[in-house]
Design brief:
Elements (H helix, E strand, L loop, with lengths): L2 H26 L5 H24 L8 H24 L5 H8 L2 H11 L6 H17 L9 H20 L9 H23 L12 H28 L2 H4 L2 H17 L5 H23 L14
Helix pairs in contact: 1-4, 1-9, 1-11, 2-3, 2-8, 2-9, 3-7, 3-8, 4-11, 5-6, 5-7, 6-12
Length: 306
């Protein structure tokens, strides 16, 4: 198989897996405590990824400096922490709408760069204004969007992802992207796991109360969302143009919206359509412009830039 075919296969893995992760989160959170479920997901995924790296490359690959481990832990608290919010909010907010709010992560990163006095050009700034106009349109209480508090929590999760993404390249995280991802998932997962054990009653943590759909959703998130998706993305970064890799930001919400309609019987309103067009157009402008300017600030669906 030639390299071009491998690139497209890896791209479609990222498209489908990360686009469908929103459905996996919704299913897992139906009967499983949100923070605890997110903690289990990232703890197991982090251990499996680090174990696989040690098996393939040797245990020495996992040796990192204390500063690198501490930085990975900080980023890990932000990224899985943000993901845990979706375990809660997706029970009230449609997954298609959630995916559109999360798709605005590159816009938040650009806003953080402005706050840090890193001056993007005029075209990128126009895209920023356009995108936040789409968020304002979507984050409006109504029967088709869900309670305002849950919508704002989802926006907060998007910002947490962006903050972790903004800090990651500015902190001494491990140089190997997969090693860094493994430590980030493990650190964030362990903290969420402890919080979940303290926050929920023993009856809520009883596996006997979890439905088959929720268990399937959790397993899907661990195996596909966290392991297969990350591995395909890291391989793409080393083998494909960044402009092509960044197209996941436009495709993932489309897949999430389609799955919400087909599997969860969610509705597609004109407000969601118009908000989607504004946000996706803005993300396209920002990512393409930033890529052209070679800033290297492209953010993946789970929020970790490489």
């Amino acid at each position: 198989m030639n390299k071009g075919a491998k690139v497209w296969i890896a791209l479609w893995v990222v498209y489908v897996v990360w686009g469908s992760s929103y459905l996996g989160i919704e299913l897992a959170g139906e009967t499983m405590p949100g923070l605890f479920g997110a903690g289990v997901r990232f703890t197991i995924a982090g251990l499996l990824m680090l174990g696989f790296i040690a098996w393939r490359r040797g245990p020495g690959t996992l040796r990192v400096r204390r500063a690198e481990l501490a930085s990975a832990a900080v980023v890990g608290l932000l990224l899985p922490g943000a993901n845990s919010i979706l375990f809660v909010t997706e029970q009230k907010v449609p997954i298609g709408l959630t995916s559109l709010i999360i798709a605005a992560i590159p816009l938040w990163v650009l806003l953080l760069r402005l706050a840090a006095r890193e001056r993007p050009d005029v075209v990128s700034t126009i895209g920023l204004v356009l995108g936040f106009g789409g968020i304002v349109l979507l984050v409006h209480p109504g029967s088709d969007t869900g309670p305002l508090s849950y919508l704002l929590l989802t926006v907060g999760g998007s910002f947490m992802w962006a903050l972790g993404s903004f800090l990651s390249p500015r902190m001494p995280v491990p140089r190997d992207a997969l090693v860094a991802t493994g430590y980030e998932m493990l650190a964030g997962g362990l903290v969420l796991l402890v919080i979940g054990l303290l926050a929920y009653s023993p009856s809520e943590l009883d596996p006997g109360r979890w439905s088959g759909r929720s268990i399937f959703g959790l397993v899907y998130l661990i195996v596909f969302g966290s392991l297969l998706g990350y591995s395909a993305y890291v391989w793409l970064l080393a083998n494909a143009p960044i402009a092509k890799v960044s197209t996941y930001a436009y495709v993932n919400p489309v897949i999430a919206i389609a799955l919400g309609i087909v599997v969860l019987d969610e509705s597609l309103t004109l407000r969601i359509v118009f908000g989607a067009l504004l946000i996706l157009a803005a993300v396209a402008i920002v990512l393409q412009r930033e890529s052209a300017l070679q800033t290297g600030e492209v953010v993946r669906a789970d929020g970790d830039p490489r």
